[in-house]
Design a protein that fits this description.
Elements (H helix, E strand, L loop, with lengths): L4 E6 L4 H16 L3 E6 L32 H4 L4 H15 L5 H10 L3 E5 H6 L12 E3 L1 H8 L4 E4 L1
Parallel strand pairs: 1-2, 1-5, 2-3, 3-4
């Protein structure tokens, strides 16, 4: 019997949704799991070279702790997303939480296999040069072969 396997489908592209697949996959890899992460639609942002544009949105996220209670209308004002992102990044840095780039590098070093959904890459007209090195470009069929035999399957 080989190592345990974990398959993750990452579909979200905001800062708060970037962390779960990266933390879970790096942790599983450190525990000896074979891990694949299939990034599709907005989850492709995890694999792009430039992740500086990944933001967190306070709008429609009632659980997001804000320093002062804010009505939804205020959260929709221009600049609020940038402010919320800055606040979150500062808090993460102060608490010693690794950045998206650091977690992604850790995953690659631990042999986590990242797969960029080729259909979504084509749909959004991305160029392969926009993505980090060390990833695979493939369709769902390539990932499902692995996911079907995985001990843990997660959709994030």
């Amino acid at each position: 019997m080989g190592p345990k396997k974990m398959a993750i489908i990452a579909t979200k592209g905001t800062l708060d949704w970037a962390y779960p697949p990266l933390i879970l996959s790096s942790t599983a890899a450190a525990l000896g799991y074979e891990v694949q992460v299939f990034c599709t639609f907005y989850g492709l942002s995890l694999l792009r070279k430039d992740v500086s544009g990944i933001r967190v949105s306070p709008l429609g996220n009632p659980a997001m702790p804000m320093p002062v209670p804010m009505p939804v209308l205020v959260q929709a004002l221009p600049g609020m997303e940038a402010m919320a992102t800055m606040m979150m990044k500062n808090k993460m840095k102060a608490k010693g939480v690794a950045s998206v780039e650091e977690l992604r590098s850790l995953c690659l070093e631990a042999d986590v296999k990242f797969i960029a959904c080729q259909m979504t890459v084509d749909l959004f007209e991305f160029r392969r040069e926009e993505f980090i090195d060390g990833i695979e470009f493939a369709g769902a069929t390539a990932f499902l072969g692995f996911a079907g035999s995985a001990d843990i399957q997660l959709y994030i």
